[in-house]
């Protein structure tokens, strides 16, 4: 009986880390942007949150009480969140892992822009 208890305990300890899900939240703020007319300051900074479930690799953006599903690309130095719009254009938010510096790129034909800020 004791052997069975020890074996069950080892099994539970060994596999307890597998099912741990972690939801990471990034609060992003952007104060300046550039477009075809140069670099500018926002009158009001753009703010939004990104939520990333690391166990499923699912992410969403929360902006003005709306939620959008995003694709995640997680690499060594940066994480990128990609939104694909209905017409095929994309919006990419990239965050440097060490510094939190971020670029929010709107790749929309006729109105492309990049916003610069940070996420923490």
Tell me about this structure.
It is a single chain. With 120 residues, this protein is mostly beta strands. It has 1 helix and 8 strands; from the N terminus they run αββββββββ. The chain has an 8-stranded antiparallel β-barrel. The longest helix has 14 residues, at 2-15. The N and C termini lie far apart (50 Å).
Provide key terms for this protein:
120 residues, mainly beta, eight-stranded antiparallel barrel, 8 strands, 12% helix, disordered N terminus
Question: Mind sketching the topology for me?
Answer:
Elements: H1 2-15, E1 23-35, E2 38-53, E3 58-63, E4 66-74, E5 78-84, E6 90-96, E7 101-107, E8 113-119
Antiparallel strand pairs: 1-2, 1-8, 2-3, 3-4, 4-5, 5-6, 6-7, 7-8
**Unreliable spans:** 1-17
- Provide the β-strand percentage band: over 45%
DSSP summary: helix tally? 1
How many β-strands, per DSSP?
Answer: 8
Average pLDDT over all residues: 86
Terminus-to-terminus distance: 50 Å
Q: Spell the H/E element sequence.
A: HEEEEEEEE
In angstroms, what is the radius of gyration?
20 Å
Number of domains: 1
Estimate the global geometry from the Cα principal axes.
Answer: globular
**Helical percentage:** 10-25%
Q: Determine the oligomeric state from the structure.
A: single chain
> For the largest beta sheet, what order do the strands appear in spatially?
1-2-3-4-5-6-7-8
Name the structural class.
Answer: mainly beta
Reported for the largest beta sheet, the result is: 8 strands, antiparallel, barrel
């Amino acid at each position: 009986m004791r052997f069975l208890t020890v074996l069950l305990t080892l099994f539970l300890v060994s596999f307890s880390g597998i099912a741990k899900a972690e939801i990471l939240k990034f609060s992003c703020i952007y104060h300046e942007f550039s477009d075809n007319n140069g670099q500018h300051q926002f009158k009001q900074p753009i703010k939004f949150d990104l939520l990333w479930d690391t166990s499923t690799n699912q992410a969403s953006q929360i902006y003005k009480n709306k939620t959008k599903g995003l694709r995640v690309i997680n690499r060594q130095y940066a994480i990128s969140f990609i939104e694909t719009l209905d017409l095929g254009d994309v919006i990419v938010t990239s965050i440097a892992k060490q510094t939190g510096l971020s670029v929010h790129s709107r790749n929309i034909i006729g109105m492309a822009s990049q916003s610069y800020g940070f996420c923490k």
